[in-house]
Design goal:
Two copies of one chain form a homodimer.
Chain A (H helix, E strand, L loop, with lengths): L11 H15 L2 H4 L5 E16 L5 E2 L2 E2 H14 L3 E13 L4 H18 L2 E10 L7 E11 L14 E4 L5 H10 L14 H9 L4 E6 L4 H13 L2 E5 L7 H10 L12 E5 L4 H11 L4 E7 L4 E4 L5 E3 L13
Parallel strand pairs in A: 4-5, 9-12
Antiparallel strand pairs in A: 1-6, 2-3, 4-6, 7-10, 7-11, 8-10, 9-11, 12-13
Helix pairs in contact in A: 1-4, 3-4
């Protein structure tokens, strides 16, 4: 069975899709009240974010566009020290998409939402004629109450320590491998990160800044932090966790692992006194978590090799990999 | 100048687009803090909604896709008796789109936001290769504090009065005319409706249910209400405001004005005692506002002609007009 334009018309078929697929999988009273907007309870500081997902292919090693859509938005909320609570979901579907593919995407989303402890409370479905969109795009927006206020890219000070939650470059490598039709066993890191973040907060770690290293990769996060806080960051190449497969494929295709997108990997800057404790906590979630460097006052992002040579890491330029997420 | 894939890579060019176009037009401190998620203050009941806009053509009589994106999301919030406060915006742009077109869309959005008294506090930009999307899709999500709680499609009771805020079918007719290359002076009704709603609330009108009649038109709203509240609704054909141009074009193309999308027209069900007062208020915003009918207990939506004949109005079926909004 294929999705036809009628499913996007706002009439009977749209209602059927909403009831038989979306309500069935995202079931909760707020969503099912089917008002123009969801009404939820919020108190005090609220994190609010949006992300559109256009990844190609829509199914990849370690996930699919639906898993990405939940992880991406929940993670942006978590990075502000907030618990992902309520999510909205906008589907833009090309007519002719197999219903089974949409169903698999939706089921994956429901599973990820459960892990995040979040709910989809409002949605929108557009079906567009063949050629107006490639298969499916998904937008997710989300809100959550800030549990630990004050986390910000503007907070970094000399001496703060930078930790990465796991080995970098996986999601970008997986999409690149699909794109160039290279067979590989590497899986995307795509994952909701709230549990890791909540554990850091509950352990009383003095978190200065936190960011998931998505498009633009680790290079973009470090440069944006350096710029926002008016500091430098020095990273030790030998401490940077990168799997052999990622290094191998990056060498073949001429990519820099630090520039590649991650979808379940975050960077956290903490006060030096808490650095080892934070690393230890993150290692329980993924053994490759590692302290990778520290904040300096020279306003540049620098990578130091094991033999002492240094090179600047800049904000990535150019098109990198279109439709990576 | 054209938008290239590099503008979506998450690196230097993306930053340039964000600073030179989005921050410049949507300027506010929360957005410009450029964190992973916006942090805003919310209290108590919050309305939360999302909508993706895929309209074709992206510029039409009376508006463009940007105006639609702000009006659509602000209106969904307003329909819950909530003030639209914070908006997120996800752009999905086809490479090759003229920068000038994007700029015009963004400027229109800024103007509409000002009318709504709302702010864009977070955003996302994807640029996808030619052929993966047609020109531009925009998702907007929004939150707002509920000022008048309890408005719901489930509230209708026999005797409540149904009012429409202006003449129906304009937006659908305008898009249809563009699609069939018919010249017309009709303008879309596309408009933020918060001022109208706020005035009704401040006047103490006992609002039962409120909904903007977008995809599926007035037919969809009335059927969804009847279904949600387990009631019927009887509409008087002679009181239904429809412009002559809309009637004329609908006759030519075989559309039913009640099924056509509106983007700045809402239906409100009020307690009978407040009906005339509510109509009077809405007439100040648009002289075609009209009491159109009342809630019955027969579980059907019925249209009564001036000579007394009745016909059922059903939930629209089939594809209607794809990419209407």
């Amino acid at each position: 069975m294929k999705i036809t334009l009628a499913y996007g018309g706002g009439g009977e078929e749209t209602n059927k899709l909403i009831h038989d697929l979306f309500y069935k999988n995202f079931s909760n009273p707020v969503l099912e009240s089917a008002e123009d907007a969801a009404v939820v309870e919020m108190n005090g500081k609220t994190a609010f974010t949006t992300d559109s997902f256009t990844v190609s292919p829509i199914f990849f090693n370690g996930g699919n566009i639906g898993k990405l859509a939940i992880a991406g938005t929940c993670n942006d909320i978590a990075m502000m020290g907030a618990k992902p609570e309520y999510i909205t979901c906008g589907f833009m579907i090309e007519e002719g998409l197999e219903f089974g593919e949409l169903e698999e995407i939706v089921k994956t989303m429901a599973k990820e939402l459960e892990k995040a402890g979040a709910k989809i409370v409002a949605g929108d479905t557009k079906v567009v004629p063949a050629g107006s969109v490639d298969k499916i795009f998904i937008n997710t927006s989300g809100i959550g109450t800030v549990i630990k206020p004050g986390i910000s890219a503007h907070n970094l000070k000399k001496g703060d320590v930078v930790i990465v939650s796991r080995d970098i470059g996986r999601h970008g490598t997986v999409v690149m491998a699909h794109r160039y039709e290279v067979e590989t066993d590497i899986e995307s890191d795509c994952k909701v990160l709230w549990e890791e973040v909540e554990t850091l907060i509950n352990a009383g770690i003095d978190i200065k800044a936190m960011r998931d290293a998505t498009r633009g990769g680790l290079s973009a996060v470090l440069n944006e932090w350096a710029d926002a806080s008016g500091v430098g960051i020095e990273i030790s190449e030998e401490k940077l966790p990168i799997s052999d497969e990622v290094i191998g494929l990056c060498e073949i295709f001429g990519f820099e692992p630090m520039d590649l997108a991650n979808e379940g990997t975050f960077v956290v800057a903490v006060d030096a006194k808490d650095a080892e404790k934070a690393e230890e906590i993150l290692k329980k979630f993924n053994s490759s978590a590692s302290i990778i460097g520290e904040v300096t006052d020279d306003r540049k992002v620098v990578l130091t090799s094991p033999w002492g040579s240094k090179r600047y890491i800049e904000l990535p330029k150019g098109e990198l990999l279109p439709r990576i997420c």
